[in-house]
UniProtKB/TrEMBL annotation:
It catalyses: (2R,3S)-3-isopropylmalate + NAD(+) = 4-methyl-2-oxopentanoate + CO2 + NADH. This is 3-isopropylmalate dehydrogenase. Homodimer. The keyword Oxidoreductase applies. Its cofactor is Mg(2+); Mn(2+). The keyword Oxidoreductase applies. Keywords: Amino-acid biosynthesis, Branched-chain amino acid biosynthesis, Cytoplasm, Leucine biosynthesis, Magnesium, Manganese, Metal-binding, NAD, Oxidoreductase. NAD(+) binds at residues 76-89, 280-292. Pathway: Amino-acid biosynthesis; L-leucine biosynthesis; L-leucine from 3-methyl-2-oxobutanoate: step 3/4.
Length: 355
């Protein structure tokens, strides 16, 4: 198999973790007989510095013509004072929209050797394994925004907009995923306050009879945030709108012990997917070899699985990660003060396990 992957190293620790991920993909190719071609492009702050825009046309063109896109991270304090449309994050939002990747899948899995690394008690997090499905191209982040001068100073508005079609397609994807897993779907909304959430809940209830093998339950977002800490094992698949999903998935990340462990896949309806760790650019440790590449490696596994249909190869990567952790190898974020590998050393350790 031959595939073209566009690599967007981005900002902060992005170049470090994507460099190790490319090496991992090369090892996968060597072991399983595949050829991966890599094309590099700029996104985010580095693109602003070099081209004046967070998403250059040549980057977008390359991504649209690829088989998959691997992203490191974007953003940092250097660009925080720029107007919203000119900031690094605006480039990422525009890329998601252009690729049509409306569903963001974020698996939350606790590796047994790291159960004690969580801030929650080991007996609470032991066996946690669920997926958050976040709608990615609608809602507050993409609705009309306005800043105006009012009688009492500045007045601002952000408009939450969803169409029935947008809600239905993300819910259907979540129902299908729950059907493939343990058959339990939790839909998270704020239906006691928001009209958009009431429509969201109505559509979920309308679709539920088509999936008799899936148990549908509803949670208000504030209760969902509490339940994630109280009893995370109760969840199988969680589906929610854009902003709620953004917040809840970062909260859920800490269940595992480190945000440096968790991957994501942003999928659409046939075009290239976007695969990235959820940890952000971490500018305070950039260039120091402290970044944990495992979230990016797990994102590579999702690319192999969802993007290329290479299930055995994806499982081999996941097993290599699990074996590395079981043998006691750690980066600084999960070392608990003990010996820690650098980014590059962890990458080589996982690749050796894969070999």
């Amino acid at each position: 198999m031959e595939k073209t992957i566009v690599v967007l190293p981005g900002d902060g620790i992005g170049p470090e973790v994507t460099r190790e991920a490319v090496r991992l993909l090369e090892t996968v190719g060597e072991r399983f007989g595949h050829t991966f071609h890599f094309a590099y492009a700029k996104l985010g702050g580095v693109a602003i510095d070099e081209t004046g825009t967070p998403l250059p046309e040549e980057t977008l063109k390359a991504c649209l013509e690829s088989d998959a896109v691997l992203l490191g991270a974007v953003g940092g304090p250097k660009w925080d004072r720029l107007p919203g449309p000119q900031r690094p994050e605006a480039g990422l939002l525009a890329l998601r929209k252009a690729l049509g990747v409306f569903a963001n899948l974020r698996p939350i899995t606790v590796y047994p050797p790291l159960a004690s690394a969580s801030t929650l008690k080991p007996e609470v997090v032991d066996g946690v394994d669920f997926v958050i499905v976040r709608e990615l191209t609608g809602g507050l982040y993409f609705g009309p925004k306005e800043r105006r001068k009012g009688d009492h100073g500045i007045e601002v508005s952000d408009t939450l907009v969803y169409s029935e079609q947008e809600i239905e397609r993300i819910l259907r994807l979540a129902f299908e995923l729950a059907r493939q897993r343990r058959g339990h779907l939790t839909s998270v909304d704020k239906a006691n306050v928001l009209e958009s959430s009431r429509v969201w809940r109505e559509i979920a209830e309308r679709l539920a009879p088509e999936y008799p093998d899936v148990q549908l339950t509803h949670l208000l977002v504030d209760n969902a945030a509490m339940q994630l800490v109280k009893n995370p094992r109760q969840f199988d698949v969680i589906v929610t709108e854009n902003m709620f999903g953004d917040i809840l998935s970062d909260e859920a990340a800490m269940i595992t012990g480190s945000i440096g462990l968790l991957p994501s896949a942003s999928l659409g309806s046939g075009g290239p997917g976007l695969y990235e760790p959820i940890h952000g650019s971490a500018p305070d440790i950039a260039g120091k070899g402290l970044a944990n590449p495992l979230a990016t490696f797990a994102s590579v596994a999702m690319m192999l699985d969802y993007g290329f249909g290479l299930g055995a190869e994806a499982e081999a990567v996941r097993q290599a990660i699990a074996r590395t952790l079981a043998e006691g190898w750690r980066t600084a974020d999960i070392a608990a003060g003990g010996p820690a590998l650098s980014t590059e050393q962890m990458g080589e350790t996982v690749r050796n396990a894969l070999r």
